[in-house]
Design goal:
Blueprint: H1 6-22, E1 29-33, E2 53-57, E3 63-68, H2 71-74, H3 77-91, E4 97-102, H4 107-117, E5 126-131
Parallel strand pairs: 3-4, 4-5
Antiparallel strand pairs: 1-2, 2-3
């Protein structure tokens, strides 16, 4: 997370809040984030990329991967490779969800990018866009 912009950090915080609110399994939630508040509890590398948020219950019946993208980064080829790697990972896991947090007013563009990157193998991955900081 070192060197990340304040906007990116706020998007990660938004991701953490949404995942905590939406995923409350009976036995608790394993939640890891690439954020200073989580210390060394960082998400695992997936396809050579570190997601901003990773969550699962234990034993695992679902997995969540979340990624925060500021507007300039959303359009990059690196981001496309990263999102594909996360979708590929989730495609073989039951009840999986991919969250993409973007700044206000960029949700439509984020949806178009996700639609372009999704392949038939990703069909059962639930896609969620979080548009905004609040």
């Amino acid at each position: 997370m070192s060197g990340e912009s304040a906007a990116h950090i706020r998007l990660v915080e938004r991701l953490v809040a949404v995942v905590k609110a939406r995923h409350q399994p009976p036995r608790g939630l394993l939640l890891l984030a690439d954020h200073p508040a989580f210390g060394a509890n960082r998400p695992p590398s997936i396809g050579g990329f570190l997601p901003d948020v990773f969550a699962s219950d234990l034993p695992a019946t679902f997995e969540v991967v979340g990624e925060a993208k500021t507007f300039p980064d959303l359009e990059s080829e690196r981001s496309a490779r990263q999102i594909r790697a996360f979708l590929d990972h989730l495609a073989v896991r039951p009840a999986s969800t991919f969250y993409l947090a973007v700044p206000p007013f960029t949700g439509a563009r984020a949806r178009a990018i996700l639609n372009r990157l999704c392949e038939p193998a990703h069909a059962h991955v639930r896609l969620e866009i979080i548009d905004g900081f609040a």
